[in-house]
Each structure stands twice: as C-alpha cells, then as structure tokens.
Amino acid sequence: LTIIINLLNDHDRTVRETAAMIFIKLVAQENLPLIKEMLKNKHRNLRATAVMAFGKLSTHDNLLTIKKFLDDRAKDVRIAAIKVFENLGRHSDLPTIIEMFGDIRIDVKAAAITTFGKLGTHGDIDTIKKILKHNVWEIRKAAVSAFMELATREDLETIKEMFEDTDWDTRRAAVGGFVKLATREDLETIKEMLKDRDWDVRKTLVTAFGKLGNHSDISIIKEMLKDSDSGVRETAVITFKKLSTHEDLSTIKEMLKDSDSEVRLAAATLLEKFGNEKDLHELTTKYANGEIAYEECLKCIIAMDEKFYSSIKNGLQMKDDDDF
Fold first, then answer.
1. Is the pTM of this model over 0.85?
2. CA 300 – CA 270 distance, rounded (Å)
3. pLDDT digits 0-9 by tens, 90-105
C-alpha cells in the first residue's frame, strides 16, 4: 500500500485517480490505523482517499466521523464525505445533506443534490423540484438526476418542462429520466423531441423507441437512419432491427453504403446475424459490381458465406492442402 499512497500525489490526475481506486479496493480492517492517520494528512488527495476508504470499512454508526469532513477546506474531501453518506446514509440523514446545498463550490452542491436523490423518497421531491430552475446548468443536471430517483409517472410533466433547457447535458438527463418512466402512450412526446439540436439527446430518444416501439413505428426509425450524426444513425440501425421483420432488412443493406464505418459495421453485424442466403447473394452481386465497395460489406459477405456454406455446418470434412 505504501507505493499506492505515494502515487496519490502524482502530478498526473489519471494516476492519482487510479491509485485512489486501487487503494480503496485493497484496504481491509487491519489497515484502519493507517487510514486514520491519512485522515489527518495535509494533502487533500490523501484525505479524500482516506475518507472513501474509511467509508468502505464503516457502517452507519461511523458517519459521525465522516460528518466532520463535510467541513474540510478541500472540496475533494467534502465530495468524498458526501459520497460516503450516499453509500451509508439513511433518510434521517437528509438534513445533513441539505446543509451541503449551501456549499460555495458547484460540484460539491451537485454531489449533495445527487445524494439527496439516493436517500430521499417521493415525499421529498418538492425540495428537488425547486432546484430544477437553478441558473447553473451543473446544478440543474444534478437536480434532474435526483428528481428522477424520486419521481413516479405523475411527475412526467415536470420532466417534460426540462426538455426546453438551454443546456444539452441537462436535456439529455431529462430525456433519459423521462424514458425510464415512459410507456408506449408517451411515444408521441418522444417523437416530437427527435428533432432536438443535440445528437446525444436524439440518440437517447432513438434508443427509447427500441424499448417502447413496435413495427408500426418503423417509418420513424427509417427517418433517423438519415440523421446528420453518425452516432444517431448507428443507434437507429440497432433500434431498427428490434422493431423490424426480415422484410425490412433491405433498409439495413442500404446502410452498408453509409459514410461512417461504425454505422456500416452495425449494419453488417445485423445482416450477418439475421440475413438469409438470398441476402448473401444480393450483397455479393452488389459488391462485385461496385455498388457497395466498403470493406464492412466484404467482411459481412465472408461471415454470411461461412454461416451458410461452411464445411462444419454442412458436416463436410475439409482436406489438408497437401491432399489437393
């Protein structure tokens, strides 16, 4: 553990974060004296790691020890203490968490709001509802996530209001939360949002159709296959297959011509799995005459050929090259 502790103050943030994760994973009860010494260390990285490690080895009864670190001068330590409350806390600890809403650092406030969502019940939802219109987007995003932890379907209208938020990350959180509670009757709302200006929001919504839609919605996903963003098109290919029948595969074949390799790969994967011999012959012809020239199509053809005509499948014994 000594080597790991030394790395907690490395100049590289990734090294420090990795060292912290390893330390927390490795500590056991016999390391408590070491952890308690680290809690007094002048370096904030060591104190923050020690708080998380102490929390790992503790129960709710030990939260009084953790509580004093909510006033630590370093925001990383305060956030670590809040996370321990999230893991060990109870509903009765909400007043302590609410006090952290007044912290001067935005990320500390956001952590406290997130923890409130984990420890609260639906009866506490009005506390979070008041924060949904906060002027700082990081706070609004945390509030949306907390709200969804506490929400039921009766709260969907409130979440829909957040679809108009100016921050795309907050809108994405709202859409993701809405989808978790949505049923098929909410598809019209989701359909209206498919024109959102941010690709990540549209991608989340396309995924929702895979969860809530059926074959009658296939035309909507066909339109999303033309989206300007490759990530949305890739997701649309996967969603399309969930809603489609074999007769709809012709649309997927066209996606082998897409300009983005990830989209072509998604299309090829679906064709390899669900295509038949007729599809193989069609793809072979299109590749041979240059209509589809990308390597993903060739790999798809090879995979399908092996699927339908391999010696293993047909029970044939291949001879060694020396026998020819």
1. no
2. 9
3. 999 999 999 999 999 9
